[in-house]
Structure formats: C-alpha cells, structure tokens
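Page 37, continued from 36.
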C-alpha cells in the first residue's frame, strides 16, 4: 500500500495476500511472534475489531503491531500532516508487560473515553485497580490476557468511526 501516490510508507507492511487461515500473510507472520499464551486472545481481538470496523479502516502491520489505519483516500493529510504516514485509528500490540490496545478515539473524544471507562468498571469492578487493566489517555494495557473484555473492545471499535475521527483531526485548533 502507498499512503500517497508514488510515496511508499516505510513504517507499514501491506496486507494483500492471505494464507491458508484466511488471514493476511503479514498478520500471520505477526501472530507467530506473539507468545503462545497471548496468541489466541490477539487473534480473537483481531477478528472482533476487524468485524466491527468493516471496510472503514485498513489493517496493516506497522511499528511491530497490528494497526487499523484510516486510508489515504479518506484522510490524505496523513498522520501529523505527513501524507506518507497514514492516520492510525486503532492498534493492537503484544508488549513485554502484556497486551496493549491503542485507540485514537479514546484520546480525541471525552464522551467515548468516559463511556469506555464506565463500561469497563461495570464489567470488571474488582479489576479496575490497575493490576489487570490500566486505562491511559489513549492506551489500554492488560497484563492478564484472560481478563480482556473482547466484546467491549469490539463495541469500542464500532462506537466511533474513522469518519468522526477524521472530522475531529480536520478541525483547526
């Protein structure tokens, strides 16, 4: 994939081909690097996020994580004004301390952030102490993959779309 006509993005890997699992080859390659105890959860998160986003975003592997980006056709300005770098909407990472989910909507929309925090607290009231899941400004960190509310992450993916995010990013400060 090229972010702008004729300008390749060195930070991403396009996902045109699928393997025997039906996943794009770059996703399969990524999953092979994930520790075994997290692989099933990462795959479940990938499936629910992809299903809830539909064709509104493109899945790529960039910066060592799966990212759903706003296509250049929808936001040609690119991330931080660089048309070569697509705007990341949501990312999924397996990091040293656990699984992290980055969602730009949590950062850009206080209503979405409040909605998520409230729903998360209701689902896991005894787990909102930072031990299992920590909610940062735009990042959700989970040290125990078994405690990730996969369905809620799917709801979050569908709650605010790239069009709303692009509108927010296009508004002058």
């Amino acid at each position: 994939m090229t972010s702008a006509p004729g300008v390749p993005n060195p930070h991403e890997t396009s996902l045109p081909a699928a393997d025997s699992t039906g996943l794009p080859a770059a996703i399969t390659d990524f999953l092979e690097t994930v520790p075994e105890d997290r692989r099933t959860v990462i795959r479940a998160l990938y499936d629910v996020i992809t299903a809830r986003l539909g064709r509104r975003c493109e899945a790529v592997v960039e910066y060592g994580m799966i990212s759903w980006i706003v296509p250049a056709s929808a936001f040609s300005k690119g991330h931080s004004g660089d048309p070569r770098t697509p705007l990341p909407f949501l990312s999924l990472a397996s990091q040293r301390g656990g699984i992290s989910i980055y969602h730009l909507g949590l950062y850009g929309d206080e209503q979405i952030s409040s909605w998520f925090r409230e729903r998360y607290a209701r689902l896991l009231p005894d787990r909102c102490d930072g031990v299992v899941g920590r909610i940062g400004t735009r990042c959700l960190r989970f040290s125990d993959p078994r405690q990730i509310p996969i369905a809620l992450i799917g709801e979050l993916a569908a709650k605010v779309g790239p069009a709303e995010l692009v509108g927010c990013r296009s508004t002058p400060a």
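The two ends are 30 Å apart (CA to CA). Flag for discussion at group meeting. The first strand starts at residue 2 and ends at 4.
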